[in-house]
């Protein structure tokens, strides 16, 4: 029996962690370890990297190399740099002016738009529309290196001068383009000088077609020295129904757009032939707006 641990002393041996052994009169305590099967420590899982074959790696390399090579060829090689610009539809406007705008656009984005794939057609359209007023503007890319610009010019009818600038415009007052005064030929179109506040708004002259047509009729009547003198320009001022026609080295003649043009021309002809004769160019103005009378100074 185990001394000191008999049942008579109501002592019970622990069923858990300690067991007693007797060796002579000496007691030896030995620990025993128990493991809970439900809470066993799990060993870490080791994931092995997939092993790819040489052939698979070669295919991936070829794909990436192809993408990089193709990208360089399409976007960086000289093959697709724009080299030719074709302009279709220019009549009064010089082709060179439109071509210059296109070359200007190729320098955008640090010059990368010289590549036909990177070229911004909308950017070029904005440049053209800022300066001109065309119908049916179209811009096309033709591989490998050509830009085609086509449009329809509005029919020029007048030259409009405002704020020291000159513009071509049609008979409805639509601005077509700004023009260098050195390139203007007044033999073909009437020059209208606006001495009022600016009238151009969104490429449109704020003037009635009636007034433009009256000036066109005046220009047709007096062009090519039909009445013995050359017309310099037509002047607009604060009098809404008045058109002033300035004669080169001569007077300014006042017309009423509400009165019959032929009747006023007849009055002028009679006055020059029967009364003024050679003194016509010495006068400051002739007034034709009031009835059958002609006033002059």
Automatic annotation (TrEMBL):
Keywords, sorted A to Z: Cell cycle, Cell division, Cell membrane, Membrane, Transmembrane, Transmembrane helix
GO process annotations (BP): cell division
Transmembrane segments: 51-75
Cellular component GO terms held in the UniProt record: plasma membrane
Protein name: POTRA domain-containing protein
Species the sequence originates in: Candidatus Falkowbacteria bacterium CG10_big_fil_rev_8_21_14_0_10_38_22
């Amino acid at each position: 029996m185990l001394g000191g641990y008999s049942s008579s002393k109501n002592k019970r041996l622990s069923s858990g962690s300690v067991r007693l052994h007797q060796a002579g009169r000496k007691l030896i305590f030995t620990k025993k370890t128990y493991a809970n099967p439900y809470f066993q420590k799990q060993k870490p899982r080791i994931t092995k990297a997939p092993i790819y074959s040489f052939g698979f790696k070669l295919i991936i390399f070829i794909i990436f190399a192809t993408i990089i090579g193709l990208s360089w060829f399409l976007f960086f090689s000289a093959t697709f740099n724009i080299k030719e610009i074709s302009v279709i539809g220019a009549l009064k406007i010089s082709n060179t002016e439109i071509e210059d705008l296109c070359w200007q656009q190729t320098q955008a984005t640090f010059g990368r738009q010289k590549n036909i794939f990177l070229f911004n057609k909308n950017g070029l359209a904005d440049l053209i529309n800022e300066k001109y007023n065309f119908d049916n503007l179209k811009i096309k890319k033709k591989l490998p290196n050509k830009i085609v610009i086509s449009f329809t010019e509005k029919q020029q009818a007048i030259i409009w001068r405002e704020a020291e600038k000159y513009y071509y415009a049609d008979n409805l007052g639509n601005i077509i383009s700004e023009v260098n005064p050195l390139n203007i030929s007044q033999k073909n179109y009437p020059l209208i000088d606006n001495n009022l506040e600016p009238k151009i708004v969104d490429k449109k002259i704020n003037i009635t077609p009636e007034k433009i047509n009256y000036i066109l009729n005046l220009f047709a009547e007096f062009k090519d020295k039909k009445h013995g003198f050359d017309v310099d320009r037509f002047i607009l001022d604060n009098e809404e129904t008045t058109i002033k026609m300035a004669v080169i080295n001569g007077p300014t003649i006042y017309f009423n757009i509400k009165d019959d043009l032929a009747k006023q021309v007849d009055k002028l002809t009679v006055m020059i032939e029967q009364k003024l004769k050679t003194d016509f160019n010495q006068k400051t103005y002739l007034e034709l707006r009031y009835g059958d009378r002609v006033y002059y100074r």
